[in-house]
């Protein structure tokens, strides 16, 4: 029997479906689920090195929500937490079926606060990015940046990539251009790159008028927003 995540309410399930849908438009591959206590975190890749010679940083998006787990197998439990990497599409399909079965209750209706049981797909995937552990503590505040500045940096990068690789060009050239654009530093103090801004925008984490905190821990950098987090690991940390 597959493990089941008990999601606290309909709004949380909708937010998760939106997050995973955005992630699937970037890379329709896998999602890592880490659940401990009453919180489940969903990790997805946005940018990552494509080989040993690729100098691209690793950029991950993570969204957490309140959810309890039932029926976890011993093989899925590591360091006291449920930790499994599953097909993203399988999780999206299950969320869509839950929404279809439960209906789209308008905000404020009583059943909007009802819990939902989300079955975890039985397939387990082996992904190199999922085996890289980000720090759980020791983060230091390195600065802040407005959502507007991050959006502008991401939009500029998207336009540059589109202009530089029109049509069907070779994969090597495409990856080189993307690496050059998304490794560009946009905040000298923290080392924040445009790739992190791209991830935050693409995953729907940026809200107009909000300030985004920038934190660092060793070779890692984190963008902290009210909607989720983006984590970036420098390629020199391999």
Order of helices and strands: EHEEEEEHEEHHEEHEEE
Q: What is the average of the pLDDT values?
A: 87
Query: Structural class of the helices, strands and pairings?
Result: alpha+beta
Counting DSSP H or I runs of 4 or more residues, the number of helices is 5
Q: How would a crystallographer describe the biggest sheet?
A: 11 strands, antiparallel
Q: Could you walk me through the main structural features you see in this protein, from its secondary elements to its overall organization?
A:
By secondary structure, this protein is α+β, with helices and mostly antiparallel strands. The chain has five helices and 13 strands. It has helices at residues 10-26, 88-102, 147-164, 171-182, 194-202; strands spanning 4-7, 30-36, 39-47, 58-70, 77-78, 81-87, 116-119, 140-146, 185-187, 192-193, 211-217, 220-224, 229-233. Strands 1, 2, 3, 4, 5, 6, 7, 8, 11, 12 and 13 form an eleven-stranded antiparallel beta sheet that branches. A two-stranded antiparallel ribbon has the order 9-10. Strand 2 (30-36) and strand 3 (39-47) form a beta hairpin. Helix 1 runs antiparallel to helix 2 (88-102). The protein is globular and about 50 Å long. The N and C termini lie far apart (37 Å).
């Amino acid at each position: 029997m597959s493990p089941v995540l008990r999601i606290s309410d309909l709004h949380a399930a909708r937010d998760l479906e939106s997050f995973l849908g955005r992630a699937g438009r970037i890379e329709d591959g896998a999602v890592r689920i880490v659940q401990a206590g009453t919180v489940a975190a969903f990790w997805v890749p946005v940018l990552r090195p494509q080989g040993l010679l690729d100098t691209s940083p690793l950029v991950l998006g993570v969204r957490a929500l309140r959810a309890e787990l039932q029926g976890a197998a011993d093989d899925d439990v590591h360091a006291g937490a449920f930790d499994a990497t599953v097909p993203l599409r399988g999780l999206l399909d299950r969320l869509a079926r839950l929404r279809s079965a439960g209906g789209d209750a308008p905000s404020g209706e009583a059943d909007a606060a009802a819990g939902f049981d989300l079955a975890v797909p039985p397939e387990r995937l082996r992904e190199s990015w999922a085996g890289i552990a980000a720090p759980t503590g020791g983060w230091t505040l390195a600065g802040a940046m407005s959502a507007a500045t991050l959006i502008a940096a991401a939009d500029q990068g998207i336009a540059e990539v589109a202009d530089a690789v029109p049509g069907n060009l070779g994969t090597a050239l495409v990856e080189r251009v993307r690496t050059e654009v998304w490794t560009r530093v946009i905040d000298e103090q923290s080392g924040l790159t445009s790739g992190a801004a791209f991830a935050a925008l693409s995953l729907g984490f940026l809200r107009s008028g909000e300030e985004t905190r920038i934190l660092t821990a060793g070779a890692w950098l984190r963008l902290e927003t009210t909607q989720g987090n983006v984590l970036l690991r420098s390629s020199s940390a391999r």
